Amino acid sequence: MTRNETVEAVCWVRLERASLSLLLTLLLISVASPAQAPPELQAKLNTELKTLEQDSVDPQVVSAVEAYNSTPPSADAQAMNNDKWHGLTLFDPFVRALGKNALSEHLKSMCNDEIIKIFVNGRDGGKVGYNAKTEHWNHKGMPKHDVPMQGKTWIGTVKLDESTGMQLIQVALPVRSAGKPIGSIVFGLRADKLR
């Protein structure tokens, strides 16, 4: 290979790396930014957001997240990760205990024909409570947790929820104490009820 061919090959490699880097950056920006709901859902979703915002500052939600954040995790919670969580059944004692705590029972009462799923994460992304077992134990590093922790609302795309078989759109809001985000609350809304 001549010097010119080597220089040209190096330039192509650098161009490909720069293009890949730009593509990954754009992908990360689009994932980390709040998504826009499809236009046909936006008006109804805007109305629903007012209710969800009230739920995100519900005193029981806020106090449960404050308690979670100020208490060292149990040995089971410390040992938990997303891979282990995936392998647990609904009948696992750890899953059942979390699903029956006071916050989880309260979240179940907040569900209705439109709101199918609700879960709450502490500052570290770990579960504080849920109305039904979630796909992940910890959502830290995911937009549905990280965006609310910046004080913003995150809206996902409409997608099929495997546990319900329904098309859902997730909306995540910060749980706030003294005006500062201390955790996140994620709602799974039925897309067909927003049309």
Account of the protein in words:
With 195 residues, the chain is of the alpha+beta class. The chain has eight helices and six strands. It has helices at 3-32, 39-56, 59-70, 75-79, 82-87, 93-99, 102-110, 143-146; strands at residues 115-121, 127-130, 154-155, 159-161, 166-177, 180-190. Strands 1, 2, 3, 4, 5 and 6 form a six-stranded antiparallel beta sheet that branches. β1 (115-121) and β2 (127-130) form a beta hairpin. The longest helix is centred in the first third of the chain and has 30 residues, at 3-32. The radius of gyration is 20 Å and the shape is globular. The N and C termini lie far apart (62 Å).
Give the C-alpha Rg: 20 Å
CATH homologous superfamily grouping of the largest domain: PAS domain
Average per-residue pLDDT, rounded, comes to 85
CATH topology of the largest domain: Beta-Lactamase
Write down the domain tally: 2
Shape: globular
Spans of at least 5 consecutive residues with low confidence: 9-13, 17-34
User: CATH top level of the largest domain?
Assistant: Alpha Beta
Instruction: Please tally the helical runs, counting DSSP H or I stretches of 4 or more residues.
Output: 8
Q: How would you summarize the topology of this molecule?
A:
Layout: H1 3-32, H2 39-56, H3 59-70, H4 75-79, H5 82-87, H6 93-99, H7 102-110, E1 115-121, E2 127-130, H8 143-146, E3 154-155, E4 159-161, E5 166-177, E6 180-190
Antiparallel strand pairs: 1-2, 1-6, 3-5, 4-5, 5-6
